[in-house]
Amino acid sequence: MRSRRSLLLGPARLCLRLLLLLGYRRRCPPLLRNLVLRWRYGKVCLRSLLYNSFGGSDTVIDSAFEPVYWLVDNVIRWFGVVFVALVIVLTSSIVAIAYLCVLPLILHTYSVPRICWHFVYSHWNLILIVFHYYQAITTPPGYPPQAKTDLATVSICKKCIYPKPARTHHCSICNRCVLKMDHHCPWLNNCVGHYNHRYFFSFCFFMTLGCVYCSFGSWDMFREAYAALEKMKQLNRNKLQVAANQTYHQTPPPAFSFRERMTHKSLVYLWFLCSSVALALGALTVWHAVLISRGETSIERHINKKERHRLSSKGKVFRNPYNYGCLDNWKVFLGVNTRRHWLTRVLLPSSHLPYGNGMTWDPPPYVITPPDSVLAV
Ligand SMILES: [Zn+2]
Ligand SMILES: [Zn+2]
């Protein structure tokens, strides 16, 4: 293939050189000379535009997919508000069903201590969900300074053309660099970074907990409601059959009232929605819990994996410099310095700031043995 191309290009180049030579010796008309010069100029322009010392198949694929990335980024940016509204509407619908349909049912059937337990637990869970979601969407993730500083930086962002501290990455949706960036969350319409990572994870955790609680708590009611809806469908089918046969001479069977029908449908909706969210969000929460236990963000997981393979091929062992051990990773992540903090900062709403400024990554004083490590960027 290459030899065939060179067979075609060789004579063409020779012709052009001859023309150029003739042009310089002023033996050809000025139009032709001008044409040759323009050809040379165009060739230099094209080469200077396409030249890239790091170029390769990845660069070509990235360039080809650039319009797709642009479209996805813009769709996520503009639909972020819709996703946030969806979370608020769906959560509010579950709370409304709990108050309007579930509460009257359990008030008649449950014992007083059981009602008290459900009342306290559900409201504690709801307060934590609302608090962490509000904080996650309103807290900026943290951005590196765009002025001259003495901070140690590891690279320059190609998009912002500003120094990039360790663990900082560029978000193409926010169009700026984010400190300790984890990912851009469309459900928050915000980037998850240094200052709101804890709020994001706590929201996922307490939302999963709430959905599991609703699914298990409403299981008996869901079964009864589902059976009642099936019965209702059967009654409607019978009615239609009777009407079709024109043998309807007796009193019609008792039908469900509008309120009963709505209650049954709401309970089925509640159970299906909570179970689906518990499964999907539960899997995401477990994944993030594993990452936090390892002292990694979602982006660092990919970078560290590549680095691990690269170093292992050279017979070296990669160690994540931000991994202080499972328990200490959780303490740093949750901002827990004392035992009391597990209650006041984890199980109760707390707006304390994370350790550090997100630009320098010295281990906190309560982390006993910072590991020897190969620097990960
Ligand atoms: Zn950037
Ligand atoms: Zn972002």
From TrEMBL:
The keyword Transcription regulation does not apply. It is a multi-pass membrane protein. Its EC number is 2.3.1.225. Keywords: Acyltransferase, Membrane, Transferase, Transmembrane, Transmembrane helix. Residues 155-302 form the Palmitoyltransferase DHHC domain. It comes from the Eukaryota. GO terms for biological process: DNA damage response; eye development; fibroblast growth factor receptor signaling pathway involved in forebrain neuron fate commitment; heart development. It is an enzyme of class 2 (transferase). InterPro entries: Palmitoyltrfase_DHHC (IPR001594), PFA4/ZDH16/20/ERF2-like (IPR039859). GO terms for cellular component: Golgi apparatus; membrane. The keyword Membrane applies. Its main location: membrane. It is found in: Membrane. It catalyses: L-cysteinyl-[protein] + hexadecanoyl-CoA = S-hexadecanoyl-L-cysteinyl-[protein] + CoA. The chain crosses the membrane at residues 75-103, 115-134, 199-222, 267-290. GO terms for molecular function: palmitoyltransferase activity; protein-cysteine S-palmitoyltransferase activity. Belongs to the DHHC palmitoyltransferase family. The DHHC domain is required for palmitoyltransferase activity. This is Palmitoyltransferase. It comes from Monodelphis domestica. The lineage of its organism: Eukaryota, Metazoa, Chordata, Craniata, Vertebrata. The gene is ZDHHC16.
